[in-house]
Amino acid sequence: MGNPYTIVLADDHALFRQGIKNILETVEGLVVVGEASDGLMLLDLLRRRTPDMVILDISMPHLRGLEAAREIKIISSDVKVLILTMHKDRDYVFSALSAGAEGYLLKEDADTELFAAIEKIRKNGCYISPLLSSEFVFDLVQASHKGELSSFSDPLTTREREILKLIAEGASNREIADLLYISIRTVENHRANIMRKLNIKQTANLVKYALDKGYILPSK
Length: 220
Fold this sequence. Notes:
Arc Repressor Mutant, subunit A
């Protein structure tokens, strides 16, 4: 018998976490070694314990799942990341994979696909929920035909792209905070992360990047 495969769960719904934990622990060799209800709590936990896999939701307080996925890979690139979410938007799938996640599983598929997802990722594969995979492949093919694959490698998270668009449209940090119902400090942190990821130091170049990516339309 080998070492147990250790998993940390991150979701802001305690009952859902408990349900997933109960399912996982019906399989010998899978052990849930930690739980977190938000992204910041998750990262704090990972600085003290290194599991084999983190299963996390996109929608969490304080630090969203896609942003947390990037930070997980910074803390330890060996930790596998499986996004378990209700979000079916194609952009979320691309953002999750570009953030370093090895899998994207819809919650509605979890009852039949959770173990398949874990096993595939455990064997160094990439897993996408059956409800999304065919559409995902179709979009990749279409993009390659149009020469748009570079858009799928955008290093920004969905939230960061949202903030970049507002910056490019001329919104102040206060206005962005009010529009998105977040603190100014959070906006400042996102802004700093955007500039770091894109290696951009001036707002004018942020606007150019947003134009190049099609986040905003050029003024006439």
